[in-house]
Amino acid sequence: MVRNVGNVDRWIRLVLGAALLYGAFVTWGAVLGYILFIVGGILAFTAIFGMCPLYSVLHINTCKRPLNQ
Predict the structure, then answer these.
(1) Residues 6+ apart with CB under 8 A from 21
(2) Rounded to whole angstroms, how far apart are CA atoms 42 and 63?
(3) What does the pLDDT look like over 5-64, one tens digit per residue?
(4) Can you tell me the distance from the alpha carbon of 36 to that of 27, in angstroms, rounded to the nearest whole number?
């Protein structure tokens, strides 16, 4: 797996993902809560692992030096 998400991008994704996950649990049971949970989970997952599948498809790399892991 090639890392393609830089550190600044990772922090933004992590903070935004955590905020969306919090919002999902506040509005749990509503359709909006489920949408926030999915989007927040994806952002948190990509922040933790440093790899975004959409970036791979679009050939975007915000990482200064990609690391093979």
Answers:
(1) 36, 37, 40, 41, 44
(2) 18
(3) 999 999 999 999 999 999 999 988 889 999 999 999 999 999 999 999 999 899 989 988
(4) 9
Neighbouring C-beta atoms of residue 32, cutoff 10 Å: 13
The pLDDT of residue 66 is above 80: no
Q: Locate tokens 């990482």: which residue?
A: 63
Q: Where are the domains of the chain?
A: 7-58
- Burial annotation 34-67 (CB, 10 A radius, 16+ → b, else e): eebbebbebbbebbeebbbeebeeeeebebeeee
